[in-house]
Amino acid sequence: MRTRMNSSYNLSLVALSLIVATMASYTALDIAGRLANPVERGRQTRWLIGGALAFGLGIWAMHFIGMLAFELPIRIGFDSRITFVSLAVAVGVSYFALRVASATILSARRLGIAGVLMGFGISSMHYLGMAAMRMSPGIDFNLPRVGLSVLIAIVASIAALWIAHALRIEQGRNVTARRCGAAVVMGIAICGMHYTGMWAASIEPHAICLSANDVDTRWMALTLTVFTISLLSATLLLSMAERRFVRRTAEMSTSLSTLNRQLLRLATLDALTELPNRSTLSQRLARAIARSGRTGRPFAVLYMDLDGFKGINDSLGHAIGDGVLKAFALRLRHAVRRYGTIARIGGDEFVVMVEQLSAPQDAAAVAALILTRMEEDLLVDGVPLRITPSIGIAMHPRDGLTVDDLLRNADAAMYVAKQSGRNTYRVFEPEMMKTAMRVHSIQRGLQEALTFGRFTLEFQPKYDGAAARLVGCEALLRWTDPVLGVLTPLEFIPVAERSGHIIQIGYWVLAETCRTLVAWDKAGLAPTKVAINLSPVQLRERDLVERMRAIVDAHGIGPERIMFEITESVAMHDAEKTVAYIRGFHEQGFEIAIDDFGTGYSSLAYLQQFRVKQLKIDRFFTDGLDKHGEEAYAIVSAIIALAHSLKMDVVAEGVETATQLEKLNSLFCDQVQGFLLAKPLPPDTFADLLRAQTLAAPAQVG
317-321, 477-481, 542-546: which has the highest mean pLDDT? Predict the structure, then answer.
């Protein structure tokens, strides 16, 4: 600085001015970032005004601290009005800078114009501040140096605006470190402009300061330093605190949005298969009904239930069962996605809503397509499983005008498909509702029958074929319902198997048989053996053998007095598993018989491995002895010879004529049962039959 008056710089104040300029620059960069953040839209005006005050005061304070660092041998002061005007200019320039820097787009032309205006504004603040000293004679300025200071101010302003705009987005790595570096550069540029302007000033040796008694420099130095640093620090701390609050709020909002999406997903989709659930299906059906009413075009509801799913779930575990449902849902989606909505409405029940039908036959074609696609095994955890559905079809408006009507009628048609052999489809017909209602009533009644003891047992005698001696019996389940009346096993057993009630019914049959045997034993009757049929659903229970043994042990009955009968078709369905089950029963002391022999497809190799006690000839072959003559005789003869070669006894069931009995005896059939000999009897009547034995010794356990 050229001067004819002795002067010097207080280096401590010079360093302090640089610190204040850097802090002010960092504050400006931080506020620009806040203004550019979309989350801050509602608080932009507040932060723009507060940031302008903080940044403006920072620049202004740096300027006056820099002037206070310039020491003269005379007392210095500042005119308060001019000083306030310079502060207003600094704040106005800062407001303008923050508006420009926080803009979404900053073109080169706009950057240049804004930099020039901001440079002139900062220069004006500087020279107004120097004018506030009111020197007499006035300060003499070197115009080239003044021009250089203005140029530095313009360049510094352009650089500051560009840096602030570039760093306004609070993303990427090391944003704080980059802002700190940029703030140092901006602070040096601002100080460079100031001290260049001071260098341009020249003061006469005998000049005096007319404002020496206005604003005291020592008071100003202390006040400016403390207040400015406090304000800038408070602004930064407030910004950091609110940023953290906004971030936490945004995180909570994001978490809440995620939770809402998850709740909405849970409310509308099935969690396992990610198909629409019952609620969503009902809504879509309601909309489809409304559309059909406007357009007159029918649509169909295909209601399906997986055949044998409960057995898979019980025998292989819920994990495999869930895998089956997911695999089935995926294949179903691939098969019929273009036809309409696919939903899982519970358990192993799925519904497909087929819209835009050209004719009712189109729904049957979709059902046939589903059955075809399900012919291939599903691979679940490496286990190949054949899963087929039974499908019921209901049409709108023919078969129902409401959501409930359509689902109920499609469900009724599905039950008929189940009764027709499964793995098929049926279109709803009005008479099906009676069948469905009957099935539902039976299903409800099964639990009541178990709870209130409405099941009973009858025992059909089994005789030695040659000696006509009573050698045992077969336990047969009977059920009379107070509402439904007398129900035959052919009617309620399939329903019990589908609903799962057969499991508890099976345990009840064994327990009741044991109680009956105990009563006969207490009455002093000859010990007898009882045969009990096993359902294929029971054979899927993992702990079946252990529970059966526990039941007979609890009643004090020897397991050798119980023979379990397994149908040939069930035994050969999974022969290896059947071998394991039979071995388990044998280890526990039970005996096994193969029932309905000749109706399935036996493998002699497996038949030998079964090592069962008896083969029971199906009544079809017994009846054929009268109807089919020599052909039937040859078949029965072959079965008996085969069984005897494997050291198995043969029981012929369904013996109803003397001719049949005579032929069976001629073939050395071991045991016979049927209406010719005796019908199924209540426990007390069978006990009378035992008493009537005229054997010299107690009946043998055969």
Answer: 477-481
Q: Are 169 and 33 in contact (CB under 8 A)?
A: yes
Phi and psi angles of residue 60, each rounded to the nearest 5 degrees, phi first? -65, -45
DSSP 124-155: HHHHHHHHTT-EESPPEE-HHHHHHHHHHHHH
Contacts of 325 (CB under 8 A, 6+ apart): 272, 273, 306, 309, 344, 348
pTM above 0.70, yes or no: no
Q: Which residue(s) pair with 632 in the sheet?
A: none
Q: Which residue has the higher pLDDT, 52 or 341?
A: 341
Read out DSSP for 39-101?
GGGGGHHHHHHHHHHHHHHHHHHHHHHHHHHEE-SS--EE-HHHHHHHHHHHHHHHHHHHHHH
State both tokens at 3: 């001067």
pLDDT tens-digit readout, 402-430? 988 898 888 888 888 887 777 888 888 88
**441 vs 434: CA distance, rounded Å:** 10
Q: What is the CA radius of gyration of the chain?
A: 49
Distance CA 423, CA 388 (A): 5
Among left, alpha and beta (phi > 0; psi -120 to 50; other), residue 696 is: alpha
Q: 76-80, 81-85, 323-327, 625-629: which has the highest mean pLDDT?
A: 323-327
CB 482 within 8 A of CB 445: no
Q: In the numeric block, which tokens belong to residue 342?
A: 């696919």
What is the token pair recorded at 582? 């039979």
What does DSSP say about strands 389-396 and 425-427: parallel, antiparallel, or unpaired?
parallel
- Terminal-to-terminal C-alpha distance of the chain: 130
Task: Quote the DSSP letter at residue 392.
Answer: E
Residue type, position 108, single letter = A
Q: Return phi, psi of residue 54, to 5°.
A: -65, -45
Q: What are phi and psi of 341, to 5 degrees?
A: -75, 135
**d(C-alpha 471, C-alpha 642), whole Å:** 22
**Confidence (pLDDT) at 581:** 83
The crossing angle, in degrees rounded to 10, of helices 544-555 and 575-587 is 30
Q: How crowded is the C-beta side of 102, counted as CA atoms within 13 Å?
A: 25
Burial classification of residue 432, based on how many CB atoms lie within 10 Å of its CB (0-12 exposed, 13-18 middle, 19 or more buried)? buried
On whether the CB atoms of residues 473 and 462 are closer than 8 A, the answer is yes
CB 417 within 8 A of CB 436: no
What is the DSSP code (8-state) at residue 539? Answer: G
Query: Of how many residues is the chain composed?
Result: 702
Pairing of strands 614-617, 591-597: parallel
Q: What is the pLDDT of residues 105-145, one digit of tens each?
A: 667 777 777 667 777 777 777 777 777 777 778 777 778 88
For residues 113 and 119, is the Cβ–Cβ distance under 8 A? no
Q: E-strand spans in 312-464?
A: 340-346, 349-354, 378-380, 383-385, 389-396, 425-427, 455-464
**Residue 423: which of 376, 389, 377 has the closest Cα?**
389
Distance CA 325, CA 91 (A): 69
Q: Would you give the DSSP letter of residue 697?
A: S
What is the pLDDT averaged over residues 189-194? 71
- Choose among 291, 390, 298, 397: nearest CA to 349: 390
- Better-predicted residue by pLDDT, 424 or 60: 424
Token couple for 425: 């489809």
Which residue in 86, 82, 151, 67 sits closest to 124, CA to CA? Answer: 86
Token look-up 């010097």 returns 8
> d(Cα 305, Cα 302) in Å, to the nearest integer?
10
* For residue 514, pLDDT beyond 90: yes
